[in-house]
Amino acid sequence: MRTLLPPGWPRPSGFANGISAKGRTIFTAGIIGWDESGTIVAPGLAGQLRQILLNTLAILAEDGAGPEHVVRMTWYVVDIDEYRLGLAEIGAAYKEVMGRNFPAMAVLGVEALVEPGARIEIETTAVVPE
User: Fold this and answer.
1) From CA 26, how far away is CA 110, in angstroms rounded?
2) Tens of pLDDT, residues 40-64
3) Which residues have a Cβ under 8 Å from the Cβ of 107 and sit 6 or more positions away?
4) Residue 124: strand, helix, or coil
5) What mean pLDDT do residues 70-81 have?
6) Is residue 5 within 8 Å of residue 19, measured between CB atoms?
7) Residue 60: alpha-carbon gap to chain centroid
8) How would you classify the pairing of strands 24-27 and 18-20?
């Protein structure tokens, strides 16, 4: 896996502009912050994010992948202001679970998610070298 940063571009903080990778590709569905019983674990975005990342890693582990294999994430948040105001807490939760792997990312503000109480949903793509 190689991070792509054109010459002269500022280094992004907390994500990559692009990633190049070869290998077996794993895609997740939109994952939310619920536990094994289907209960949302926290009322706020940062708490839900932590659980989403744990859930995502559990899915990836089913095919031998870990956080170091994540190349792309798309985040859907129901309150973009909550996201912006919570960046320090969000960043801490992310680093706690994912370490220092910063894939290509997009964050989109959406009107609603399917599951009541969900504040964030994330789709992930991972590439495991062959």
Assistant:
1) 25
2) 999 999 999 999 999 999 999 999 9
3) 75, 77, 80, 83
4) strand
5) 98
6) no
7) 12
8) unpaired
